[in-house]
C-alpha cells in the first residue's frame, strides 16, 4: 500500500487579495488618466502642426542677438545671482533657529515642534512664483520681492533637512558635555555642530543651486532678475533675444551645478 502523494505547494509573488488590489489600482489609474485628458480639453488640431511650429520657433531664435547681451542681459543676470544668494542667506538665517525648535531631541516641547514643522510645510507648499506674486503686490516690482520669495520658499527646504540632521546626531558626545556641566552654547558648538556641519553645507549649497534656477524665472511676474528681460523679449516677439536669454540661463544653470558639485566634494 503506497502513501498518498503530498500536495504540491506553488509559490506566487502576490496573494489573490494583492492581485485584486493591484488590478483595481491599474483600473483607477487608467480612469484618472482618461478623465484628466477630457478635463484639460486637449484640442487635437493644435497638436498636428506642433512639430512645424516648434521648428519655426527655433529658426526665429537663431542666430542669437549677441549684441543684446551687454545692454539687456548682463546686468539682470548679475541681479539674478544677487537675488538667489541673498534669498538663500536670509532663508538660512530664518530656518536654522526653527530647525532647532523642530528637532525633537533638542527641543522637547511638542507645541514648539509642531509650530516649526507647520512653518516648514507652509513654506514648501507655496511655489516661489506665488510667493513672488504676493511680495510684488506688497513691495512692488523689483529685486526685493524676488529675494523675499526665494527666502520664504527656501525656509521649508533648509529647515526640514537641517532639522532631520540634528535629530540624527549621536547622543554620546552631547550627553558627555551635558554630564560635565557644559553650557548650552558649548553643547551646540562641540556636540551638535561637528556632526551636522557636512549636512548644513550640503543643504545650503544645494538650495543655492536650486534658487539660481528659480530666480531666473521670477522676473516673469515682476520680481526682478533675468526673467524681466525674458518677459520683455517674449512680449515684443524678439525671438533672437529670447534664444539668447534661454541659452544664457541654460549655461548658468550648468555652470552653477558644476561649481556647487565641486565645492561639495571638497567640503564633504
Descriptive report:
This protein has 268 residues and is an all-alpha fold. The protein has a single domain, classed as Orthogonal Bundle (MetI-like fold), CATH 1.10.3720. 78% of the residues lie in helices and 0% in strands. It has eleven helices and no strands. Helix 9 runs antiparallel to helix 11 and helix 10 runs antiparallel to helix 11. The chain is extended. It starts with 15 loop residues before the first helix and ends with a helix. The model has no long low-confidence stretch (mean pLDDT 82).
Distance between the termini: 74 Å
Strand content: under 5%
Question: If helices are DSSP runs of H or I spanning 4 or more residues, what is the number of helices?
Answer: 11
Mean pLDDT: 82
Helix content: over 70%
Number of domains: 1
CATH architecture: Orthogonal Bundle
Radius of gyration based on Cα positions: 27 Å
CATH topology-level name: MetI-like fold
CATH 4th-level superfamily: MetI-like
Extended strand count: 0
Structural class: mainly alpha
CATH class (first level) name: Mainly Alpha
Q: What are the segments in which pLDDT stays under 50 over at least 5 consecutive residues? A: none
Succession of helices and strands: HHHHHHHHHHH
**Based on CA inertia axes, which overall geometry fits?**
extended
Largest sheet features:
none
